[in-house]
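We treat protein structure as text, and this decision shapes the records that our systems exchange. This encoding replaces a full spatial description with a residue-level series of whole-number codes. Below, we set out a record of this kind in full and without editing:
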Amino acid sequence: MSRGKFIVVTGPSAAGKTTIVEKLLEQRLPSAVKLITTTTRTPRPGEVDGRDYHFLSREEFERRRDAGEFLEWAENYGRFYGSSGVELDKLLARHPLVLAILDVKGAAAVKSARPETLTVFVDVGSFDEVRRRLEARPGITPEDLAARLKTAHRERQLAATFDRVVINRDGRLAATLKRLEDLLRPYILEFGMK
């Protein structure tokens, strides 16, 4: 039986990773699915368990982590986040492509655990564009902006360590989606789907 391909989309804050994956799934790659991340944080208004995240208690997350369920996990601001290898394997058995949106550290951890994973680094072309996109986010504080810019600078230096780099410039989302669709379509055909 054919097995799907795992694609991890990563990159700095404000690169457009979430938008790109959502649009690919909705408009261009209907046979692909998204790996839902697991977290211990409380759902935000409008978030649905199993659609936005798998929401777990801290104790349940730690139990699953200790049992080796997660391909990668991290603690950010006192909350755990992780990607379930168990869920991934179930999805790969049924779908030609499974996409995940992970931070740069998570993407590197997954690549180390599963070298067959295709990692795609999404960048924006210039650091000034990163700054403009972050400044445009509602409610961003000067401290948060400074921290995110520092992290983005460090992450952009790692771009060449990933399998592919795709530039997502302002106003060029359709071109970015086309490049990614062209990159991923052969995996769908290999799986035996159109």
The chain has two domains: 1-32+95-194, 36-94.
